[in-house]
């Protein structure tokens, strides 16, 4: 078989940090030559300028340092906690992520979880499917959503869309961020997550997982949130002290939780499976047809721009 | 109102029952076994001046009951819907009727929009999936659903609840259409036309005879295989057998249902589907709202006992 000729027709080389399980690469295969990094021979590894990260498996300093020509790491996710950003910084490598592609679906999912937890939609549905509505009567009373104080940790792209949605339910919204947002931001700023929790009935985590935010929700924050308070997490499991969360739910330190993410997916603490004041979800806040179509556009756009020397669509400040 | 004889048809709410017991002369219909209820009513007929009902299908307040109570003056509904009360017979007899509007508007609207998201985004299904160990067994796989925001939402019935739903849906950037005249929202004169231009249809109309079966086979077909139906009104608004068949066969994309033709009888076929969210008629099922509803029931009873204007009369 004749090897492909070098030159104008040759597709640009893109290494994959892991096999792609999202079906993106077949669509882009017409434009780029994808090679799994683990399968790359020495010549390919030496040549590779771009690493595409089509999942959440770790991208280590070790892998990055095996690619001397690497200039761009492009992820399919918005979170970057699985990428060694220090190594990227050190090497002057640019990183792009999903940008704001997933924000709408994430925000919608937060609202769906808030209603599901406070109004016990998941538990009541299960009650009904077990036949208990017919035999045991109505599901016990839940608590109202409208008017509950919502505290959002991270008022970025996702957090601000969550704020707008829950404000339309008549929920007063407050937030914590690294710095207060400039006016005309209508929401109240709290300088710490604990202070925000103390003034909230629903605490929403919509921030990135970094060294600063790891286990930001600890026992102290949960005690501040209180027995009537509910935690909703669509960020990363690592934002929460998970064993402590289980204890706080069991002891009634907090009133409930809606969890799309866990520290060690798809494993989660078995104690949660018996709790009906918790809604459990399989890390799918962004898993819609529309988001996948959107992120394909973002990723291919970033790759095309890179190889054409044009400005990237969603570079991240490291 | 200590001398007011009040008949409570079934257990509704502990707080309400305690207050009725404390402040009136309370009789509980369920103290008599089912087959002795007629006897019970005959025995107490002369002392019963007020009846308190719940809501939903089978809540009581029909002609048979009204006719059995010659001293009946008022029926007080712990519900906003009063379709279970024979209003014609009430008017004939001069019996007043009250309901509990407004205090539950937010709760029903919250649940309606919650169902509109939870059904297509499959939140309760994911909860079952995780609890059944399937997320782990399938190596972290779930699958894709469809986006909610920006989809066209059609609201049938733009009363208090419909408007509250519209206000919430605005926060998601969804264009709104509805089947009732209102400024700023696009109006469609028939439900079929509304369904044809909607991705999601929310039934929020009050239970009148004209709304019976308003969501017909034709409407369901117009909504289509990617459409979602949410019903927080009455089961009777929807052709239920047609709805069940359409969902099972994939002719309708999904549904969020708080009400059914005959509660608590939910078709087995629905219980096996992943694209529906089923709720046991809990539109107003929060501690906050049920207390407010109970207080409104008590306030209406007290107004009646003192010959003052009723707060929320229907008749």
Tell me what you see in this structure.
- The complex is a heterodimer of chains A (318) and B (315).
- Chain A has 318 residues and is an alpha/beta fold.
- Chain A folds into two domains: 13-97 and 289-316, Rossmann fold; 102-280, NAD(P)-binding Rossmann-like Domain (Rossmann fold), CATH 3.40.50.720.
- Helix content of chain A is 34%, strand content 14%.
- In chain A, helix 5 (103-118) crosses helix 8 (157-167).
- By secondary structure, chain B is an alpha/beta fold.
- Chain B is 37% helix and 14% strand.
- Chain B contains 13 helices and twelve strands.
- In chain B, helix 11 links the parallel strand 10 (228-231) and strand 11.
- Chain B is elongated, with a radius of gyration of 21 Å.
- The model of chain B has no long low-confidence stretch (mean pLDDT 93).
- At the A-B interface, helix 5, helix 6, helix 8 and helix 12 of A face helix 5, helix 6, helix 8 and helix 13 of B.
H/E series of chain B: EHEHEHEHEHHHEHEEHEHEHEHEH
CATH topology of the largest domain in chain A: Rossmann fold
The quaternary structure here is: heterodimer
Please report the first level of CATH classification, the CATH class of the largest domain in chain A.
Answer: Alpha Beta
- Shape descriptor of chain A reads elongated
Low-confidence stretches of chain B: none
Give the overall pLDDT of chain A as a whole number: 95
CATH architecture of the largest domain in chain B: 3-Layer(aba) Sandwich
Largest sheet of chain A: 7 strands, parallel
Report Rg of chain A: 22 Å
**What is the count of β-strands of chain A?**
12
Characterize the largest beta sheet of chain B: strand count, sense, and whether it forms a barrel. Answer: 7 strands, parallel
- Highest CATH level, the class of the largest domain in chain B: Alpha Beta
Rg from Cα of chain B: 21 Å
Give the CATH H-level superfamily of the largest domain in chain A: NAD(P)-binding Rossmann-like Domain
Helix content of chain B: 25-40%
């Amino acid at each position: 078989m004749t090897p492909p000729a070098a030159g104008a027709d040759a597709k640009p080389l893109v290494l994959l940090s892991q096999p792609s399980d999202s079906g993106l690469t077949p669509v882009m295969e017409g434009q780029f030559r994808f090679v799994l990094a683990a399968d790359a021979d020495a010549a390919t590894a030496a040549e590779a300028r771009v690493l595409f990260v089509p999942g959440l498996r770790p991208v280590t300093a070790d892998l990055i340092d095996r690619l001397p020509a690497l200039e761009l790491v492009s992820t399919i996710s918005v979170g970057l906690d699985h990428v060694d950003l220090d190594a990227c910084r050190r090497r002057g490598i640019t990183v792009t992520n999903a940008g704001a592609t997933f924000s709408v679906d994430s925000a919608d999912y937060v609202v769906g979880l808030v209603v599901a937890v406070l109004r016990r939609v998941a538990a009541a549905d299960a009650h009904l499917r077990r036949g208990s509505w017919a035999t045991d009567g109505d599901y016990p009373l839940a608590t109202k959503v409208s008017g509950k104080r919502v505290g959002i940790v991270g008022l970025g792209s996702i957090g601000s869309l969550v704020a707008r949605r829950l404000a339309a339910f008549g929920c007063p919204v407050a937030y914590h961020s690294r710095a207060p947002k400039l006016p005309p931001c209508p929401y109240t700023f709290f300088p710490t997550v604990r202070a925000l929790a103390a003034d909230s009935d629903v605490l929403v985590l919509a921030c990135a997982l970094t060294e600063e935010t790891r286990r930001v929700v600890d026992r102290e924050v949960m005690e501040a949130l209180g027995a009537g308070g509910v935690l909703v997490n669509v960020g990363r499991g690592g934002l929460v002290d998970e064993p402590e969360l289980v204890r706080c739910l069991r002891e009634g330190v907090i009133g409930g939780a809606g969890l799309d993410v866990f520290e060690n997916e798809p494993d989660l603490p078995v104690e949660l499976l018996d709790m009906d004041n918790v809604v459990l979800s399989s890390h799918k806040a962004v898993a819609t047809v529309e988001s996948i179509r959107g992120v394909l556009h973002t990723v291919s756009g970033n790759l095309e721009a890179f190889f054409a020397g044009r400005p990237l669509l969603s570079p991240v400040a490291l | 109102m200590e001398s007011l004889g009040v008949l409570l048809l079934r257990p509704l709410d502990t707080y309400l029952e305690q207050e009725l017991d404390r402040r009136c002369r309370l009789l509980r219909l369920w103290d008599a076994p089912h087959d002795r209820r007629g006897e019970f009513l005959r025995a107490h007929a002369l002392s019963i001046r007020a009846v308190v009902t719940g809501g939903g299908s089978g809540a009581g307040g029909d002609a048979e009951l009204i006719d059995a109570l010659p001293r009946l003056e008022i029926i007080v509904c712990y519900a906003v819907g009063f379709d279970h009360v024979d209003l014609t017979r009430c008017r004939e007899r001069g019996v007043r009727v009250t309901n509990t509007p407004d205090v539950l508007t937010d709760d029903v609207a919250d649940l309606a929009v919650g169902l509109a998201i939870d059904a297509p985004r499959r939140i309760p299904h994911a909860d079952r999936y995780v609890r059944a160990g399937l997320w782990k067994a399938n190596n972290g796989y779930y699958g894709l659903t469809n986006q909610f925001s920006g989809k066209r939402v059609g609201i049938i019935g733009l009363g208090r609840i419909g408007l509250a739903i519209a206000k919430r849906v605005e926060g998601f950037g969804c264009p709104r259409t509805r089947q009732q005249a209102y400024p700023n929202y696009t109006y469609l004169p028939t439900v079929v036309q509304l369904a044809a231009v909607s991705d999601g249809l929310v039934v929020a109309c009050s239970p009148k005879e004209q709304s019976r079966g308003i969501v017909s086979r034709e409407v369901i077909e117009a909504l289509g295989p990617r459409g979602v139906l949410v019903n927080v009104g009455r089961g009777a608004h929807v052709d239920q057998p047609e709805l069940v068949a359409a969902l099972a066969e994939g002719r309708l994309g999904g549904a969020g249902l708080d009400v059914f033709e005959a509660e608590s009888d939910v078709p087995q076929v629905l219980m096996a589907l992943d694209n529906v969210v089923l709720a046991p008629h809990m539109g107003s099922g929060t501690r906050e709202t049920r207390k407010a509803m109970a207080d409104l029931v008590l306030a209406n009873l007290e107004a009646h006992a003192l010959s003052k204007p009723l707060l929320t009369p229907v008749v």
